[in-house]
Amino acid sequence: MRYPHDGQFYPASEKKFSEVVFFVPFFEGTKEKLRRHVQFVNDLGYDAFAFTLQDNFSVLHPPISSRKNFGFKHLYADQIEELLNMIPGNKIVFAFSNPGAAAIEALSWRKCQDIKALICDSGPSGKFKKSARNLYGNVKTVGPFPVLWLLTQLFSYVWSAQLHADVEGQLRSFPKDFPVLSIRGWKDAVIPPDHIDVIFDPQTHLDLQKLALPEAGHLNGLRDFGDLYRPAVARFLASVSTPLS
Predict the structure, then answer these.
(1) Kind of pairing, strands 91-96 and 115-121?
(2) Per the confidence metrics, is the pTM higher than 0.85?
(3) Do the beta carbons of residue 84 and residue 91 sit within 8 Å?
């Protein structure tokens, strides 16, 4: 079967669980850049699915979602919803950085139907403008302050006019005790832990677990700190999964 948005299944060589791990890439990420994570869950016995976020737009084709919301976040949520609807059976969503907010939006639209749990690695940020400034100032190093300020403002509102203020209500719609694993690096120069806490800490109805990686930065937990990352994520996945007999 052919999937939109460059979607692809990655079957486990020895399938041990009925759930599919559905990966949502980080901003400017592709399914190829998630191969380390795909291989990780395949080795645990999970089938995986990954895709590439599509963000092509122009003056003639502005980033407006099917629900008439402006911004990449909402376009990404459309793509995630479409693909989740196409994949049968139960799924565990594994999202990265700020596109995790688009995954939350899609799950709220679907009322978490057939979703067993959510893993968010290095995001999303509840202080979006600060994380955008961190991205352009600390990672992309775009230049002097006026350029940094302009790019921060432009990117923030092209991402979503609401920034991430809408995420609180979307998470509030999740079922009571819905399992969430929030992975954060204490040395993350883009989305530090306090940005992530703004998103998740008010949601006391969730079954929230946190994986703190004291030496990790942004998105490098599995690559550089696998001795902490792998067993913690494997335990969480097993706790929400259905073993095959």
Answers:
(1) parallel
(2) yes
(3) yes
